[in-house]
Amino acid sequence: MSTSERFGSAAVEHAEAVLVEQYPRLVRLAYLTLPDSLGRHTRVLLAHKAVQRALPRSGSPVASAPAEGSAGDPDGPLTLVRARVLRAALTPAGPAALVRARAGWPPVPPFVWGLRLWPPAGGIDEAARTLAGASAPVRAAFVLHHLDDLAEDEAVRLLARAGAADPAGAVQDALALPVGEPLLLALRRPEFDASVVSARPTDLLRRRRRVRAAWAALATLAVTLTALSLHGPPQGPGMRPAAGPAASGVLDPARLERVPAEAWADTARVDFTAWPARGGRTGDRDLLARALRVWAAPGTIPVTTTPRTTADPPARPPQLLYAGELDGRAVVLLREEDRVVRYAEPATGTGARTLDVARTDEAGVTTAAALSLSRDPDGAAARYLLAPWIARAATRDLQRTGDPARPLAVAADGVTAPAAVPPATGPCTSWPVLELTSSTRIVEKHSFLLADLGALSPVHLTYTPLPDGPGAAPARQPREATGPEARAAWAPQACRLGELRGGAYRAVNVWDFAAGQLPDGGGRAVWSCTRASGWAGPGDVLVRLRPESGAPQDVASARSTAACGRFGQHLLAGFRWRSPAGRWYLLAAGSRRVTGITATGAVRAEAATRTLAAPWSGADGPVTLTGTLADGGTLSALDGAGGGRD
Fold it and tell me: How much is the pLDDT for 372?
């Protein structure tokens, strides 16, 4: 290789200046490109490591055309550094690093012992969850094109330089990702700096116990090695080298993590990590061993997982949440990282065994408040294990707003009496939900609703009322759906919850974003957006028009979107509506920051308010709706058009 194909000191200094200047953007690129299976802490460390090691050494060979990285090309140093960051993120120190991360070991330096790190709020984790199903090159292409503003051909060349197998295909797949503009704006906000991280200590007592256990294990290993050196290894055809979870002790019931009963009252992290081990069979070593073995190797036992959830064996000893006997079956609940596992078997005799795995990313006071333990054979009722911070439990029918809540008995170990669950098939004449009240040791006068959709974890129901005043008013936050106004909004929406069965949802919010009078004496109607937020981040939304009299009507819908959520607070939707007089109208409405609506196409109309009602005359055809925002920006309708629906 000639001298011209090696980095000179001036080129290295230029690359260093670019790296320092672009450090936050490079960390963002590495973080979103790294595999999402690594977890936030490990990804943060590996992202900073990839950027810090992207600076070439003087005299080192150039990996591609020297003109791209030469000091004479103003884009060269940035291209060079980006390529080195991408190369490290696409293959983070090779397969060995992935094995270490999945095994729970810290990455090679730099790492910080005893701390957990994660990026700040502002959209990067929302983006990471949105990109969870995409490959690393596709995630990298998303950042390069959408956030770093590289043209498609530039992104293709950079990915090729970084060693991606199909760079052109990765860019095309990135362009097809269903990512909303609100999320992109959140990631570009100046106050969001990807190089800033939050830090908290790990569980100090647990760490101390692990250190002691490590020293004890080293002492045992030393004694064993001494014995082997004196007597030799055991011989025989049945001897095999140990491997997998069993070899590392993960499947040993004695190593299950057990949280003290009052830990929830003395921690700021009120979630599944604070659940103590409860139930009458927490000391049944054989039952716990069977549950762990089935998790590690289910064989022919049916395994049910929620979408985007892996049933992989645990990488470390799980936390024991429950082990007991209910309605003729023994049930074990275990937690590892962001997963909860339920194992069930017949309490006596033989019968079917089952394993259910659900994800519980960043669960909190409400979303970690209950887990399903067992169901009646006909599926009409279920028992739940409630969080230790739940003081009272009741049930109510979401469709009957005037009925009072009915108390639900709870045993000393947190297990409820059988509670009715929503019907999976047949007519929807009622929709029972749990109404739980937190202990005053957590928060005063805090009640909330949970709906059972057939998954291991019920979903949290919330409500966002209509905005106050003009568009400049602050945005309202979702609140608990326990008040009369919230229950009235939820009653006509309740049966639509059945459409969410089989999904991995953590919460469903009904947002009343606009209201107005309907033409031809149609009365007052409320526009609402129901958002089902998944554990993985993206959510599914349904916009409906809810008149004072008559059934609600669907307006628009979207899947895997940020709309109607924290990063999608601007909304515009419209549809074709028939009045009581039999005339057709284009109806449209926008959220609080919308100051005007314009319709073009089959209907041409304008409104200087947040709602529009225009006669639909003439031939059918598409309609394009555009909203004007208070800051001068524009907004498109949720699904791009307002017309064509009868």
Answer: 97
